[in-house]
Amino acid sequence: MKIVTIVGARPQFIKAAPVSRELRKQHTEVLVHTGQHYDENMSAVFFRELEIPEPDCNLGIGSGSHGQQTGAMLGGIEAVLIAEQPDWVLVYGDTNSTLAGALAAAKLHIKVAHVEAGLRSFNRRMPEEVNRVLTDHVSDMLFCPTQTAVKNLAREGLTQGVHLVGDVMHEALLWAAERARTQSVILDRLVLMKKGFLLATVHRAENTDDPVRLRAIVEALVSLDDPIVFPIHPRTRKALDRLEFPTLPSRVKVIEPVGYLDMVHLEQSARTIMTDSGGIQKEAYWLGVPCVTLRDETEWVETVESGWNVLVGADTERIVGAAKENPKKAYNARPLPADPAVPLIITALDGY
Ligand code: UD1
Ligand code: UDP
């Protein structure tokens, strides 16, 4: 089988790593990087640390408006697919790279497999929600991480080619967690004690592009007493500059985005995580670290139902209250669920 895998953004490198590793044992993979993320610490570091082979092709699309970026990707991916004539195109998650890959393939009548299918926030103002819905509806194979995702697809009439496989990010995390413990020196570098700090990330358009929401989140970080590590997404760095917020106290350590091993080590060492990231909500859950989600809704409803994740929106008081809470049960390590996602995905593609 020949598979063209499309990646472009940070979480996609992480998701593709464990699948790629297994896929290449039996099949031919052509890895296409759209270039959506391009800074060294948003892209190359993940290829290096996760031992992902160099992309066969980097389209170098870069940043732009949704239409410009997705349109440029569509043309670039189409040319690669015409040249490669793969059996499958494999796409991950919900970014503009995901949609461009799925759409380019569908129009060429090449089969599309979507990993992380069926996730829904039911908020169509999120660019990711539009990408997810459209990608799912042109996909031939839909790999769902949760039962909720399967149900979401059924509600939209999608039942053919749907497989509940579990979560490839869980496999990526298991691979990295032990390595992170022995290889990451980030706690020493930042002079942090295990469980003596909070970890924060923000990058969702709804938070970065709305000065009221962004200000409310930053005010919460300033109001808390603990050291906070804040690896800042370039989009958020730019938005904060526009906000002209007074200098943050030194207790809030604003650092450049970190590689995956450092991130996993920060996550497993943090007392609480505050984030609007999809992937980080799940990692917090698997690592048994309380999570305060800076959004009004989540696709990962299981993490909230389990009591490990709380949705607080961009409300300063609610963020501070939730971050200060000391949910004792959350400190008990949870057994990590053993999702066999990667072999299930490969077997399903093989047997189609
Ligand atoms: C994208 C995805 C989002 C995902 C996130 C993961 C879409 C619509 N959004 O959001 O679903 O959660 O990636 O991180 O696809 N920039 C840099 N250097 C880079 C990359 C980006 O400076 O290497 C800056 C540029 O100013 C750019 C902005 O960040 O305009 C936003 O980047 P973009 O890829 O459009 O969206 P993300 O916010 O990263
Ligand atoms: N991540 C990382 N370094 C960082 C921030 C995030 O390695 O500085 C990892 C994080 O552990 C998770 C993934 O990137 O695996 C999540 O990506 P992001 O939050 O950008 O996107 P989302 O999951 O919301 O789409």
Low-confidence runs:
330-336
| Distinct small molecules | uridine-diphosphate-N-acetylglucosamine, uridine-5'-diphosphate
Total beta-strand segments: 13
Radius of gyration: 20 Å
Mean pLDDT: 94
Widest sheet, order of strands: 3-2-1-4-5-6-7
Order of helices and strands: EHEHEHEHEHEHEHHEHHEHEHEHEHEHH
Structural class by helix and strand composition: alpha/beta
Main sheet characteristics: 7 strands, parallel
Provide structural commentary.
This protein has 352 residues and is of the alpha/beta class. It is 47% helix and 15% strand. It has helices at 10-26, 44-49, 66-84, 96-107, 127-137, 147-155, 168-183, 186-189, 205-208, 211-223, 234-243, 260-269, 278-287, 301-305, 316-324, 341-350; strands at 2-7, 28-33, 57-58, 88-92, 111-115, 141-144, 162-164, 198-201, 228-231, 252-255, 272-275, 291-293, 309-311. It has a seven-stranded parallel beta sheet with strand order 3-2-1-4-5-6-7, sandwiched between helices. Helix 1 packs across helix 16 (341-350), helix 4 (96-107) packs parallel to helix 5 and helix 10 packs parallel to helix 15 (316-324). It is globular. The chain binds uridine-diphosphate-N-acetylglucosamine and uridine-5'-diphosphate (UDP).
